[in-house]
Design brief:
It is globular, with a radius of gyration of 21 Å. It has 237 residues and is an all-alpha fold. The chain has 12 helices and no strands.
């Protein structure tokens, strides 16, 4: 009986400690968010991105490129409020099982928030700060505007930091002129530019492209036949 009471007391203490720890992380993250937007407002950040010489609007993006990006990065993008609890839950489970940060669970909106304000270091306080910025983005901008900003702030390898630089650099054409093959190849690079950039490893770039095409099929954007035709198009370029 005493042992059972002792275990309940210990469990209660552990739970209380975890709640306190979570509260501290959330408060630290909130303060990090406040400091960031106090230094440069969200409106100023967005204006700075849009002022880039090679900024690409949503209307200039091929539909297949948009579908490919969302398929591999955030397929519930148009249905969540800035964070995806399903993806977060899956990521937490996989991270705990691996004993390390192996999966992020971040949405496109969170990734944009990170690119705008924070470093790439994986720390809990920064993840919390991202969430607050993500909520601000969702309140003030449409989904298409957020996606537009995202593709103009991610790294595509080879020194390309926006979709137009990448499409011109890799394919010699503007984003809206990209083929299905080029769109699906480009969509896979930002996951790990140091590996998937075609100038680094054409073989790994193609394997990543195959993953993108598989996701397009799974999400209902492509048939298996169209995926195979798209991949085969690369052999005649």
């Amino acid at each position: 009986m005493k042992v059972r009471k002792g275990l309940k007391y210990l469990a209660a203490m552990v739970m209380a400690a975890l709640i306190c720890l979570c509260a501290m992380v959330i408060m630290d993250g909130y303060h990090m968010y406040q400091d960031a937007v106090a230094q440069v407002s969200l409106e100023e950040k967005v204006a700075s991105i849009r002022s880039k010489e090679n900024y690409t609007t949503f209307d200039e993006l091929p539909e297949i490129y948009v579908d490919a990006v969302l398929s591999v990065e955030d397929h519930r993008f148009y249905n969540h409020p800035g964070i995806d609890m399903i993806a977060i839950g899956r990521a937490v489970f996989n991270d705990i099982r691996a004993g390390a940060f192996v999966e992020g669970g971040s949405t496109v909106t969170q990734q944009l928030a990170k690119n705008m304000y924070f470093t790439q270091e994986k720390e809990l306080q920064r993840k919390v700060a991202e969430v607050f910025v993500a909520f601000d983005l969702e309140r003030n901008y449409s989904k298409n505007e957020i996606l537009e900003l995202y593709v103009n702030t991610i790294y595509y390898g080879n020194g390309y930091y926006c979709v137009k630089d990448a499409s011109e650099g890799y394919f010699g054409k503007a984003p809206n002129d990209m083929t299905d093959y080029e769109s699906t190849l480009l969509a896979g690079i930002p996951n790990a530019p140091s590996k998937y950039a075609p100038t680094v490893s054409p073989e790994l770039a193609q394997k990543r492209q195959e993953q993108v095409l598989a996701r397009l099929v799974k999400c209902g954007y492509f048939t298996e036949e169209r995926a195979l035709e798209t991949l085969a198009a690369g052999n005649v370029l």
